[in-house]
Write a structure and sequence with these properties.
GO molecular function: calcium ion binding
Distance between the termini: 31 Å
Oligomer: single chain
Radius of gyration: 16 Å
Largest sheet: 2 strands, antiparallel
Number of helices: 8
CATH class of the largest domain: Mainly Alpha
Number of strands: 2
Pfam families: EF-hand_7
Protein name: EF-hand domain-containing protein
Keywords: Calcium
Strand content: under 5%
Strand order of the largest sheet: 1-2
InterPro entries: EF-hand-dom_pair, EF_Hand_1_Ca_BS, EF_hand_dom
Length: 151
């Protein structure tokens, strides 16, 4: 975890350079940085979706944050580490993309309340925005609140 945590600490510092607050970053700072480095684009709607998802996830964490709606370095590292760890549970081949087969394989171990293949198809229809048959981390994160609410 130390190597991954160090990468998230570096990311926090880069984003914090955009902030007027030396301790906290907001969803807007994070979104602005991801857009600046080309991970999300205004043209495909991912900026809006990313920001909405980030707001939603931080709202869910509200009581666990030292400053609601913002993250300090430790919270930022923990938040992104946990998001990536959750993503990697589905990225079984560690390729940086989740295929339908990987998603299906990871779901079979859980006790689905409806047909697993149907559920995987439903998730892919919602999450795979560019219809390339794979889910990258940004697509996954933009739909994370919906994924967590699926029954």
């Amino acid at each position: 975890m130390n190597e991954v945590a160090d990468e998230f600490k570096k990311l926090f510092q880069m984003i914090n350079d955009l902030s007027m607050d030396p301790v906290y970053v907001t969803p807007q700072h994070i979104t602005d940085h991801f857009e600046k480095v080309g991970m999300i684009q205004t043209t495909d709607g991912s900026v809006r979706e990313f920001h909405h998802s980030l707001d939603k996830m931080l709202t869910l964490m509200g009581g666990k944050l030292s400053k609601p709606g913002s993250l300090n370095e430790a919270e930022f590292v923990r938040f992104w580490f946990n998001c990536h760890r959750f993503y990697n549970k589905f990225d079984l081949k560690n390729t940086g993309n989740i295929t339908k087969d990987e998603f299906y394989e990871s779901m079979v171990g859980s006790a689905p309340d409806k047909d697993t293949q149907e559920k995987v198809d439903e998730i892919f229809n919602i999450v795979d925005r560019n219809d390339d048959g794979k889910i990258d981390f940004i697509e996954f994160f933009c739909r994370l609140p919906q994924i967590l609410n699926m029954k």
